[in-house]
Model the fold of this input.
Amino acid sequence: MTVPGRRSSTFIRLLRSGFTDPSAAARLLDTDALVAVRNDPVLLDALGATADPDLALLGLVRLAEAQPDGELPGFLDTLVSAKPLRDRLLGVLGASEALGDHLARHPRDWLGLVTYEAADLHPGLAEFEQGLAEAHDPVTLRVAYRRCLLSIAARDVCGTIDVAQTAAELADLATATLRAALRIASAAAPEDAALCRLAVIAMGKCGGNELNYVSDVDVIFVGDSAPGADEGKALQAATRLASHLMRICSETTVEGTIWPVDANLRPEGRNGPLVRTLASHLAYYQRWAKTWEFQALLKARAVAGDEALGAEYIAAISPLVWQAAERENFVPDVQKMRRRVVDNIPAAQVDRELKLGPGGLRDVEFAVQLLQLVHGRSDATLHSGTTLDALHALAAGGYVGRADAAQLHDAYRFLRAMEHRIQLYRLRRTHLVPEDEGDLRRLGRSMGLRTEPVAELNKAWRRHASVVRRLHEKLFYRPLLDAVAQLTPGETRLSPRAAGQRLEALGYADPAAALRHLEALASGVTRKAAIQRTLLPVMLGWFADSADPDAGLLNFRKVSDALGKTPWYLRLLRDEGAAAENLARVLSAGRLAPDLLMRAPEAVALLGDPEGLQPRTHEALQQEVLAAVGRAENPEAAVAAARGVRRRELFRTTAADIIGSYGTEDNPAEEDHGALVDRVGGAVSDLTAATVAGALRAAVHSHYGDLLPTRFAVIGVGRFGGHELAYGSDADVLFVHEPREGVDEQEAAKAAQTVIAEMRRLLQLPTTDPPLLIDADLRPEGRSGPLVRTLASYAAYYRRWSLTWESQALLRAEPVAGDAELGARFIELIDPLRYPMEGLGEDAVREIRRLKARMESERMPRGADPTLHTKLGRGGLSDVEWTVQLIQMRHAWAEPGLRTTRTREGLAAAHAAGLIPTEEAQILDEAWVLATRVRNAVMLVRGRAGDTFPTEARELAAVGRYLGYAEGTVGEMLDDYRRITRRARAVVEELFYGG
Done:
């Protein structure tokens, strides 16, 4: 008897055997069906060896209870005496609830696991066809299919076959099933079968002989007429047969379903005819097919129906597949295909996705298929539809490094094995790793992990996914480095022609130059070259992800040549995770940022500092600039120092802008485009103000020492005063002075003019740094008026002569340098002009509208497309800004929130005050932000300012990438710009011209 409070020996033994619920297991063992074997130690040990002993025991009880009368003793006797059967049967019951259900419904199917002969160990297509031979309708086909599937699962879980053999057997079973389904469909409609020839072409994993337990079976149907039959009627008959075949496999019956048959890979997808002739297929592929369709055809295999027609199809399409890399649109298609799409995976599932998630099966499959397309045109050994066979061939041919291929091979097999065991449990199509502890435990044990199955599984899975994530990009590039470095004698490596083909396929326009750069960077046995060989595989991938990979690689070589001997440069790129990717993005996004970096390569250090890309405050910038000016020996050196700070900070701003717009692997692109625009405008404006302040200090010091005879202030206007400067903007300013006590006005005016002339001279001195142009044309009387006035002169002019446009220009006036108190008094002077009490009169409103209309008609450059001009075009910057400014001049006297120099702040204040409805405010804001981003993008890409989209294709594509458009979608970008600005113009017509 068992002492109260102590566990029985049976309970302890069951616990040690791996049962998670020993009490329930003991009750199951005590059922009448198992009473004869409940104490058999061999049976308990066998149950304990399964993936899920509890599930295996429950399935065994259900199977035993379902045995026909008189057959239970024979079943139990065979179970305990025949080890092969015991291992197979219990292994399946412990791994698959679905197959346990099948055995409970068909209790004699266990007999199929008894035989243990050579043909049974490794059945082929013929054996599966024999197993399905007696099926005569969808129900009997499902029963026979599950019986065959049971035998595959048994060999799989017992380790008789490996994961690749399992996948091949599943593909063979699918082939036999398609043939049986076509036989059943033909028997149901013999007149249709007599009219036509029909070939079934397997695609995807079935075509590649690497099928999952549960997967859509992708097919293409090829039809033709039987001798003497009308082609039209024959195709109709073939379509009916094909449709019936699909229903036979896909429809749910009392025995469930087999798997969906998916014909959407056919020409034109679901919109195209289900069955086409061979000639129709070829016409489509030769004229209309996209690169991804040829990638899919890599795995095409004739599996059922008319063998001769199927063979003709394969022979006809094969040359087209291996010529795909020569197609005109191959490179942009590949670049789009290479950008892995995980957007459609729910965020909560990305980390559990075996197939599509980062480091998943799709990464391996895509990499292998792309390399096959690139190199298979000249090497027939790569013409395999099976991923692992193709990977082996790529390694044997030197197209992939052998060590990389071996690691990828092991990782792919592990991930496929996980996928198989996950699907086997309930025979459901899924690629998600389960979250439930019990499911993970069963999965881990099924993979042979028995000590700590959950922890060991997660560790192994993450390790293999990490290998894939690390290698799937390097797979493309590491052999290129081996080809140019030639460090390992006797190793098979890429030929120069094959290396050029690969680079061309990945978007490099000048493969020969790219190979020269790689050789210069990676050749030799120095530590520098060794680090470059580690960095370059991933750097090349990031360059290829841009609109101009060649420029990215060339710029990287230039920076590396400049900094390669410094101890910190390569260490920074190697050790600081974000630095290398940030640099790759910056170097391949256009001309401006690399040009700035080349003038001061040490600024690379900013890219590795987590805070390095954050804009600095106006106070910090001005303090640094003034300190540098104060240390200089002469005004030229002083302004050179100030411009050096400006160059570095412009690089910081452009780098942050590019990285925020492109995104990185760890940080997606900034979704708030308005915030990006505000950061750039604020940073460039603050930087310009600090530079002007430094030039002013240098000019004063060179001519007057520490004290200028007149108080002097610089007022920013236009985009400068609005904190909205773009990279290429001039600094629009007004100059104001006030003679110091006892100083003659003429002397003061002369001093002010001298300082302005010196500032302009210093800021435009020819150097390697970008010049800063100061524009004072918005002053009273424009170019005809004096360059600088006293505060009293401004007051007199505005009181007597001021025009409406001048008041409008003052809306964005803000002190930026010089005497702060004088600047504040200037603002006090102009506030009544720009925010007139009781608002603008009707005459003034009409004058503003007239000026705007005149500007639209006269200032648009000849030949410019008004729908694409960002500044003066329809719904562009001018439209939005004039609309906001008119509202400010009419209502800011009563609405303090409108008293701002910034366009977006003014627009938001107008909306908050109820002066612009929500939708209209959003439309105007979206258009203004987009137009500003386009101007910034043009400057970043071309290195010079522009108000419209570039015409050169690569530059236009680079602007698109900055704006978030994928390769090949510049037409969509231009359409979006026109649509957004068209809507904005409609709002402007209503609010500016109609209100």
User: Anything to note?
Assistant: Residues 1-6 have pLDDT under 50 and may be disordered. The longest strand covers residues 217-225. The radius of gyration is 38 Å.
